[in-house]
UniProtKB/TrEMBL annotation:
Alphabetical list of InterPro entries matching this protein: NAD(P)-bd_dom, NAD(P)-bd_dom_sf, Polyketide_Oxido-like
Family matches, as Gene3D superfamilies: NAD(P)-binding Rossmann-like Domain
Positions of the NAD(P)-binding domain: 12-203
Database matches in SUPFAM superfamilies: NAD(P)-binding Rossmann-fold domains
Organism phylogeny: Bacteria, Pseudomonadati, Pseudomonadota, Alphaproteobacteria, Parvularculales
Name of the molecule in the record: NAD(P)-dependent oxidoreductase
Species of origin: Parvularcula lutaonensis
Pfam family, one: NAD_binding_10
Length: 241
C-alpha cells in the first residue's frame, strides 16, 4: 500500500464547494491533493495544497487515490438547458471510478455530495417542488444512481445531502438533518457544506450517514425571483463555457 502524503484527495476541486473545501482544509492545516478536470490558471502547489488533473469519466484514478488517506468528491453538474436534458454521468459513473480507484489503492474513507431532493421533502415550497424538481429530474436521477453505488461499495462512506445551494460566507448556525432538511431550512451555503465534508473525513463524523446541512436565508434568497436569477446566470455561464 502506498504511503499517502496528503490527508485528503478532493475530486472536483475547481467547483464552488471544492474551492471552499480547499480554503477550509488549509485553515485546518490539512494537506490536500486538489484534483481538477483542468487545473485553473494561476493554481500553484505549496506545502498544503498540491494540484493535479484527471477526467473522472475516463482516467484510472487509483494512483491519485493512493496519495491521500481520505477522499472527498465535490463532483457536480452545473445547471444548463443541455445538462438538464442529458447530464454527463459525473455523479454515477464518476463516483464509481473514484470508488474503483479507492479499492485498488486500499483507501476506505469517502464523502460525496448528493442533494436533499433525491427524496421527497415535505417542507419544500410548492413553487420549488413544481419548478426545480422537474427541471433537475435527470440530474437527480443520476444522484440517486450514485447513492446506490456508494451505499453498496463496502467503504466507510458519507453522503452529504445539501439543500438549494447558495455561495455565501460560512456560518455557524446551520442545521444538519438526517438525510432531510430541517423545518424552515431550504438553502445550504457552499461554505457550510464544505465544512460538513471536512468534518466527515477529518473528524470521523457521519460514517454511513446522510448529513443534510441547511439554514433559513432571506426572503429574497428563498424566492422564485432568486431561482430565476441564479438559473439564468448558470445558463449564461454554460453558454460562455
Amino acid at each position: 500500500m502506498t504511503d499517502p502524503n496528503h490527508d485528503i484527495v478532493v475530486f472536483g476541486a475547481s467547483g464552488v464547494t471544492g474551492q471552499h473545501v480547499l480554503r477550509q482544509a488549509r485553515h485546518r492545516d490539512l494537506r490536500v491533493l486538489a484534483v481538477h478536470h483542468t487545473i485553473p490558471e494561476g493554481a500553484r502547489d505549496d506545502d498544503r495544497i498540491t494540484h493535479a488533473s484527471a477526467d473522472v469519466l475516463s482516467d484510472d484514478l487509483a494512483d491519485l487515490c493512493a496519495l491521500g488517506r481520505s477522499i472527498i468528491s465535490c463532483l457536480g453538474v452545473a445547471f444548463s438547458p443541455s445538462a438538464a436534458i442529458d447530464p454527463p454521468p459525473l455523479y454515477s459513473k464518476g463516483t464509481k471510478a473514484i470508488i474503483d480507484g479507492m479499492r485498488r489503492a486500499a483507501r476506505n474513507r469517502l464523502a460525496v455530495i448528493s442533494a436533499a431532493f433525491v427524496d421527497h421533502q415535505e417542507i419544500l415550497p410548492d413553487w420549488f417542488r413544481a419548478s426545480v424538481i422537474p427541471a433537475l429530474g435527470a440530474i437527480i436521477d443520476d444522484m440517486r444512481a450514485m447513492e446506490r453505488t456508494v451505499e453498496e461499495c463496502g467503504l466507510a462512506w458519507t453522503i452529504a445531502r445539501p439543500g438549494w445551494l447558495l455561495d455565501r460566507p460560512k456560518t455557524d448556525d446551520y442545521e444538519v438533518g438526517d438525510g432531510v432538511l430541517h423545518e424552515g431550512c431550504l438553502r445550504t451555503r457552499n461554505a457550510d457544506l464544505a465544512e460538513v465534508m471536512l468534518m466527515a473525513v477529518a473528524d470521523g463524523r457521519w460514517v454511513g450517514g446522510r448529513p443534510s446541512p441547511a439554514r433559513h436565508e432571506s426572503d429574497f434568497d428563498e424566492s422564485p425571483a432568486a431561482l430565476a436569477r441564479e438559473f439564468g446566470t448558470m445558463a449564461v455561464d454554460a453558454l460562455k463555457g
